[in-house]
Amino acid sequence: MSQAHDPVEHRSFVIVGDTNLARRVCASLRQEASTVQHLARPGDEDLREAMATPHDAVAVLLHEDAAALRYALAVAHMRADVPIVVTVFDRTVADELLRLLPQCHVTSPADLASPALAGPCADAGIAALYGRAGRARAVRLDRAGTPCAEDWTRRRAGWRAWWSRLASQLRSHDAGTRLMLGGLTGILASLLADWVWLLGLGHPPAEALFDAARVVSTVGPATDVHSTAYQLVSSVLMLGTIVFTAMFTAGLIERMLGPRLVGLIGPRTVPRFGHVIVVGIGQVGLRLCCELRRLGIPVVGIERDPHAPNVRLARSLGIPVVAGHGGDRAVLERLHLRRARALAAVGSDDLDNITVAIAAQGVARDTRVVLRAGEHEAIAETRSLLPLGTIRDVTSLSAAYVLARLRGVPATGVITHGHEVSVRLPDGGFAPWPLAAREGCAHVETAVPA
Fold this sequence. Notes:
about 450 residues, alpha/beta, Rossmann fold, six-stranded parallel beta sheet, five-stranded parallel beta sheet
C-alpha cells in the first residue's frame, strides 16, 4: 500500500459551499492544522476579500452546477494562478469549465462513487470495480486487509441468462402496456379460435384465415357455414373483439403519449435473472447504472417521478426504468428481486434508502443490498447501518478525493473498505486518507439538502 499524505506542512485553503461535502473537507483541513476560509454562499465582495491573500488551492463544492461554474470563474478571475477543485455533476458543464479554466480540476461525486457502489453490486468480496478501455479492474482486500487491484471478467452467460433475456420480451410493467398487450392477446385468441373452428369444419387454411379475419374485424362470419353453434360463437367473438380493440387502442395511446420507460422488446426490457436493481435514478443512480451496463451486468432502475430529468436521460441510454417506490414490496417482487444479483438503494435521502433496504430484506433476505448513506444529519454514523447491507458514504468518498487534489496528490479514484477510505494513485496503489467528522466545521452548522 502506498503511504498516506504528510499532514505536517502548513497550507492555506478557501472552501466555497454549504454542503456536507464542504463541511467534511473543511473539518479535515482544520484537523491537519491548515488555515481554512470557509464561505457558504459568498457575494462578490466576500469572495474578493477572501482571495485578496494568496492561497494554496480553492475548492468549490456545491450541488448546483451553475453556481459552481460561476464561483469557479470568479475565483479564476481574481487569482488566475490558484488551483481550483470543483464538483460538477453535468458533464457538458464540466467539459466547458475545463476548456475555460485549464488550471481547474473538475470532478463529480457521482462519478467518484459509482465504482465503489458497482463493486459490491457485482460481488460481495469486491470493494470497487473500475471498467475502462475494454477491461475491468476489481479492488479486493488481501489477507492483511490491504486493497489491491486485479483483472476482473464477468462470468459467461449461461442458459438461465439467455432464457431470462428471452422471457423478458413482451412483459408489461405499467397499466397502459398491460391494457395494450391484453387487448392484443384477446384479438389474436379470437382469430385463432375462429380459424381452428373453420379448419375443423373442413375449410381450406387460407379461406379459414380469411373468414376468421372477417370475424375479428367485425365484418361478419363465414357466410357458407350453416352451423348454429359456429354462428353463436362467432357472434360472441365479434362482440368480444370490440372490447379487445378498445383495450388495445387505449393502451397504445397511453404508451405513445407516456414516457415509455421500459421497452417491450430489445435491450430495454426488464431483466429477470442476475440483474441489479438500482433504486433512485438521480445523479449517483444514473452513473451507477451506466457503470454496471459498461461492465456487462444487467440493470433496471426504479424512480418515483417518471418525469425526472435523469429518467429521460436513462431512456436515451437504453436503461429500463420502472416508475414506482422502491420501498413497495409489490414493485420489488415484480422486478424479480429474489433472482437479482443485488439491490442498490442510492437515492439522495438516507431515510428513503433505509426504507428500501428494509423492504428488500423482507422480500428476499438473501439478496445483497448496497446502501448509500451518510448525508442525513440524524444518521451521520453510517456504521450503525451495517446490518442492512453494504454501506457506501458518497460524502466521505468525495471528501477524500477532493482533499487529495487540494494537497496536490494526483488521485485517480477513491475506494472504501471497512471503516477506511483510500485514494487511488496513478501507479495503481492506494493511500489511506483519514477524514474528520463534518461537525469539526464551525462555519456551516447544517448543510443544505442535495
